Amino acid sequence: MSADAKAESILSAKGLEKSLGPKGSAIKILGGIDFSAKAGEFLTIVGPSGCGKTTLLMAIAGLYSTDAGQVLFQGKTVDGPPEGLAVVFQDYSRSLLPWKRNLANVLFGMRRLGVSKQEKEAIAREMLAAVGLKGFEDKYPWELSGGMQQRVAIARALATRSKLLLLDEPLAAVDAQTRADMQDLLLKLAKQFNKTCILVTHDVEEAVYMADRIVVLSKRPTRVVEEIEVPLAKPRDQLTTREDAAFLKIRHEVFERIRSFKED
């Protein structure tokens, strides 16, 4: 990596190792992972099933300790959940508080934000409007569809004014049409609010469609085996982008790389 690229890095992982399970019979999940994310980049992470993609994301978020290695966020070591970083989980039904209305759910994520109550509410309303939920502020999550609930979770992450969003397969539980719409929404919001995003997904097409760069992981003990630039024009389009020869070439390359681990 060039000196300029290093200077732009908002997050870097160096030699991350992690085992899970009882002492003496623990399984090594992460086997020494190194990668970085540049400010404003949309990075996607893919790998064979069970390779530890979510474990990696939780370590980056400071929610898991590691056995070795270091995570740096904005130049500082991550030893717990840092300010300026937010996570959007796959299971929106558990990440939202069902007894709180949508506006209150977004405000709940803003507890550490150092602005007035009035400013917080204005930001929360703005973020709900940004994800297409203006008029739903006083509804409860359980009154909304699954896709709309995940929009509330995304609004909450945006409202924290975090510079880095970690997305743990956030679209896995929604239907195909909603998934496509949400992919476009996430790309739009990332650009609109100048966010750096790291998305973990098992869907190779999604990884290629959304990424500026793809990090491909091996099977356990997991390491980075390849980083693939995605030079597709933006904004992306669900039809023309997916029919682009470059898209098809990259998709084929990633599929083949992951398949090679299954055949070992």
Write the layout of secondary structure elements.
Blueprint: H1 3-8, E1 9-20, E2 27-38, E3 42-46, H2 53-60, E4 68-73, E5 76-77, E6 85-88, H3 92-95, H4 102-108, H5 117-130, H6 146-159, E7 164-168, H7 176-192, E8 196-200, H8 204-210, E9 213-217, E10 224-229, H9 240-243, H10 245-262
Parallel strand pairs: 3-8, 3-9, 6-7, 7-8
Antiparallel strand pairs: 1-2, 1-4, 4-5, 9-10
Helix pairs in contact: 4-6, 5-6, 8-10
Description:
- With 264 residues, the chain is an alpha/beta fold.
- It folds into 2 domains: 8-84 and 163-262, P-loop containing nucleotide triphosphate hydrolases (Rossmann fold, 3-Layer(aba) Sandwich), CATH 3.40.50.300; 95-162, no CATH class.
- It is 38% helix and 23% strand.
- It is built from 10 helices and 10 strands.
- It has a 6-stranded mixed sheet, sandwiched between helices. A 4-stranded antiparallel sheet has the order 2-1-4-5.
- A hairpin with a 6-residue loop joins strand 9 (213-217) and strand 10 (224-229).
- Helix 4 runs parallel beside helix 6, helix 5 crosses helix 6 (146-159) and helix 8 (204-210) crosses helix 10.
- The two termini are 30 Å apart.
- Mean pLDDT is 93; it is low at 1-7.
Beta-strand residue fraction? 15-25%
CATH architecture annotation of the largest domain? 3-Layer(aba) Sandwich
CATH class of the largest domain: Alpha Beta
Name given to the CATH homologous superfamily of the largest domain: P-loop containing nucleotide triphosphate hydrolases
**Unreliable runs, pLDDT <50, ≥5 residues?**
1-7
CATH topology of the largest domain: Rossmann fold
Summed up, the helix count is 10
The mean pLDDT is: 93
Q: Please, how many domains?
A: 2
**Order of helices and strands, N to C?**
HEEEHEEEHHHHEHEHEEHH
**Could you give the order of strands across the largest sheet?**
6-7-8-3-9-10
Q: Compute the CA-based radius of gyration.
A: 18 Å
Total strands? 10
* N-end to C-end Cα span: 30 Å
Largest sheet: 6 strands, mixed
